[in-house]
Amino acid sequence: MVEIDAIDRRILNALQRDGRITNADLAAKVSLSPSACHRRVQRLEETGLIQGYVALLDARKLERPTTVFVEITLSGQADELLEAFERAVRTIPDVLECHLMAGSADYLLKVVAQDTDDFARIHRQRLAKLPGVAQMHSSFSLKTVAQTTALPI
């Protein structure tokens, strides 16, 4: 665990809302001098608490409005099979997330597609060919009710 104080928390909250905020504006927002704020941000980056900065894109405007959650059950639990599956799933650009699960499925994938026909293509050409897949269950998202990348701090 990385030790953080109230000022670090304010910095992290501000950066989660706006990763492009200038150091001067961030320093003013958290009541620090710009040099002290810069040192704190550097420390948070060096410790890995801040892993990186990204642009959040609009999937609809990029013609990927369809979100599908895919539960995958593998034919076995051997380390080699799990590792092969995980290596292969990382190569599929349409898979935004892949989680190893405890429960009814081994993995849960979040997949984006243009539409149902595009998902059928992804399913047939990529997902069905993943190593060790025994079963797949797909659920189409009808509406995103809540979505954030900000962690509660």
From TrEMBL:
Out of the domains of life, which is the source?
Bacteria
Q: Which UniProt keywords apply?
A: DNA-binding, Transcription, Transcription regulation
- The answer, when asked if Iron is one of the entry's keywords, is no
Database matches in Pfam families? AsnC_trans_reg, HTH_24
Q: Which GO terms describe its molecular function?
A: sequence-specific DNA binding
Q: Name one GO cellular component term.
A: cytosol
- GO BP annotations listed: regulation of DNA-templated transcription; response to amino acid
Q: Where is the HTH asnC-type domain?
A: 4-78
Transcription as UniProt keyword = yes
Name used for this protein in its record: Transcriptional regulator, AsnC family
